[in-house]
């Protein structure tokens, strides 16, 4: 489960730290383990075509949740909201695959493909998804959608 | 005494039964007087309770306007009893305390607390979910008025637990769950109820689970609960020794086997408890990680979670060697040692 990619992101997380400006912020907690993330999204433009100019976060938790926040932010920054949501859906599908017949698309998921092994451990899937969920939430807020 | 054993779904339900009976006492007859709780009254718990012996009391206070108070913890994982006489006072209606912490392993001096509680007329509710499976428990010596535990933690099935209550209290206590099997006479205008324990066992009972729990009790009694405790004391002593000799390992709980049961929680510098647990899991060592349904303990010690090893009669010293070796491997893997 602990791919070298995951450990690298865990030791040297990308985009970490809370930054300004931002239009949406979300705080997510995993109540079964106490992992926490506060995440901000800075968008340029409107609606689904808005460009994700920055994702910044402060997170506390295990290597999986920390590395996932790093990988996620690096994947979505620079994309449009619509494109990034599609990547998020692909990642969610990978996490729900229970380690079976998953054929994750490496072109879409890039480093996030390293989390494939996590899907075999139901207790850890939430760790890998925590930052993604916070990002979706923060983005919805930035776009002014009620969540 | 016959009639003192109420079958419940689990310890959680047993504790809720008492907490809800106490709010139902507000509208029950005069015999339920001593269970009434309201504004100005106090309910005392501890900071080391499992959520099952904390949240029901928070909720009772919310429903009735009573005030929740609690014993804090010392740095070495014991109950801080310095304020015993002020915390448990003439306003106290209930003192709810664990007999063995599922996180720290601590066995608090329940008898001492119960003595003070009874002097001020409070009811003593003991969470025996961890003590009943692991040590001989005598409710009289303990000074308990109620004691709850679960079958699945003592080699029995899930879906069954016990609420033991002192007969005169059960006699006077109003029901929680009502319906079939617990009534005496039913008319459209109202109903009367059976004596305990039936009054508290509404609906078709979980007969299969009850037989299973009975078999588990017989099995444990045959082995002898004092021998179970002795065995676990040996394991705990060895676990404490093997774990504390590893640099970077921090115990969360008492460092000696005195008044302590077989749950050993710890953190490892630089490695999140979940990651410690995952490495151990891959090595075939089963531990639990998280806040173990006792979140305030983690808050008290400023940690997000712990890794926790627990023992029972089937564990061996070799298991603990595997545990200690596994922790060292996790340190190597994450490059912290
Ligand atoms: C100390 C303690 N109290 C209460 C409980 C609740 O037990 P159950 O979930 O079986 O009701 C547990 C176990 O989870 C426990 O360890």
Can you tag this structure with a few keywords?
heterodimer, B: 337 residues, alpha/beta, seven-stranded mixed beta sheet, four-stranded antiparallel beta sheet, 13 strands, binds pyridoxal-5'-phosphate
Overview of this structure, please?
The complex is a heterodimer of chains A (147) and B (337). Chain A is α+β, with helices and mostly antiparallel strands and 147 residues long. In chain A, 42% of the residues lie in helices and 18% in strands. Chain A has five helices and three strands, in the order H-E-E-E-H-H-H-H. Chain A has helices at 4-11, 63-76, 81-95, 106-109, 122-142; strands spanning 24-30, 35-44, 51-60. In chain A, helix 1 (4-11) crosses helix 2, helix 2 packs parallel to helix 5 (122-142) and helix 3 (81-95) runs antiparallel to helix 5 (122-142). Chain A is globular, with a radius of gyration of 14 Å. Chain B has 337 residues and is α/β, with parallel strands linked by helices. Chain B is 35% helix and 19% strand. Chain B has eleven helices and 13 strands. In chain B, strands 1-7-6-5-4-2-3 form a seven-stranded mixed beta sheet, sandwiched between helices. Chain B has a four-stranded antiparallel beta sheet with strand order 10-11-13-12. In chain B, strands 8-9 form a two-stranded antiparallel ribbon. In chain B, helix 5 (139-142) links the parallel strand 5 and strand 6. In chain B, helix 9 packs across helix 11 (317-333). Chain B starts with a strand and ends with a helix. The complex binds pyridoxal-5'-phosphate. Pyridoxal-5'-phosphate binds next to helix 1 of chain B.
